[in-house]
C-alpha cells in the first residue's frame, strides 16, 4: 500500500553540500515529497527525538551532532515507503552500506551518516508530527 516515511538530511550532509544530490536521488527513486523544510533542532529537540537511544553510550554525541547545524526534514510518500527508503539509504554504518545507496555515496561515518529513515509506519507518523504541522503537508 502507499504509505509515508520521515527523513532528515543530517548536518554532515548539509555541511558537505549534498542537499540537492540527495533530494534528486530520493525523487528519482519514486518518492513524492509531501513536506519539506530546512530547519535546525535545538539540543532539547534532539534529546526528545532520540529519547529511545538515551541509555546508549553514543547518545550525547548523537544529540550534539544532530543539533549542531541545519537539517532538511521531509515526509515522503510511496508504495512501501518505510522499507524501500531504508533500502535506498543503506546500512547505518556507511562502511557496510551497499554500492549506490545514499549513505555509501554521502555519509561520513557511523555517527555522521548523512540521512535518517524511519524504521516503522508508526515511528514515521510520530517523527513527521514532531517536525511538521498539518498545514505543512501537501
Ligand atoms: P540512525 O539510525 O538514523 O539514528 C540513530 C543514530 O545513532 C544512527 O543513525 C547513527 O548515526 C547513530 N549511531 C548508531 N550507532 C552508533 C555508534 N555506535 N556510535 C555513534 N553513533 C551511532
Automatic annotation (TrEMBL):
Swiss-Prot/TrEMBL keywords: ATP-binding, Cytoplasm, Kinase, Magnesium, Metal-binding, Nucleotide metabolism, Nucleotide-binding, Phosphoprotein, Transferase
Amino-acid positions noted as binding ATP in the UniProt annotation, renumbered to this chain: 10, 58, 86, 92, 103, 113
Q: Name one Pfam family in it.
A: NDK
One example of the protein's molecular function in GO is: metal ion binding
* Protein name per its UniProtKB record: Nucleoside diphosphate kinase
UniProt family annotation = Belongs to the NDK family.
Instruction: Output a single Gene Ontology CC term carried by this record.
Output: cytoplasm
Domain Nucleoside diphosphate kinase-like, by residue range, is: 2-138
Entry cofactors: Mg(2+)
Which top class of enzyme applies to this chain?
transferase
Source superkingdom: Bacteria
Q: Recorded E.C. number(s)? A: 2.7.4.6
* Catalytic residues of the enzyme: 116 (pros-phosphohistidine intermediate)
Which reactions are catalysed by this chain? a 2'-deoxyribonucleoside 5'-diphosphate + ATP = a 2'-deoxyribonucleoside 5'-triphosphate + ADP; a ribonucleoside 5'-diphosphate + ATP = a ribonucleoside 5'-triphosphate + ADP
